[in-house]
Amino acid sequence: MTTGNDTVLTTAELGERIGLSPQTIRRMANAAQLPGLKSGRDYRFLWTAVKAHLRNPGHATAPESDNDQILSTAELADRLRLSTQTIRRMAHRDQLPALKSGRDFRFSWEAVKERLWHPITLEDTTDQPQGAGLRAQRRARDTDALND
């Protein structure tokens, strides 16, 4: 998705641009060698951040901007090419900077871009258990508490 100078790329698109396989891109992102954002099993990369990182690894910083846009969940989902549900989930987990507005969120595009400039960290790659996994953990904890 391109808006002015902001191009957000998927793993495959970034691999194609820099001549690496998607698996290598994923491996580099997991090792914090590329700035980006992890969403479930997939990644999103800001092209300007990747270029700056390739020019000066570990020392790239986001440029200052005066034209900050405030986006709804649907608008940010469209820019990042993710579902609105994924965007909400990431906001709840503090993986994206967001302002809760009633039952929905508002996002600063500049803050999201700033987040895309950072390498993917271990917190981004470890998903908290949900659904049956979370219920099973609670059940095991409760059983252990009863047995003690």
Automatic annotation (TrEMBL):
Residues 122-148 are annotated as: Disordered. Residues 139-148 have a biased composition (Basic and acidic residues). Residues 8-55, 71-116 form the Helix-turn-helix domain. SUPFAM superfamilies: Putative DNA-binding domain. InterPro entries: DNA-bd_dom_put_sf, HTH_17, SinI_DNA-bd. This is Helix-turn-helix domain-containing protein. It comes from Actinocorallia libanotica.
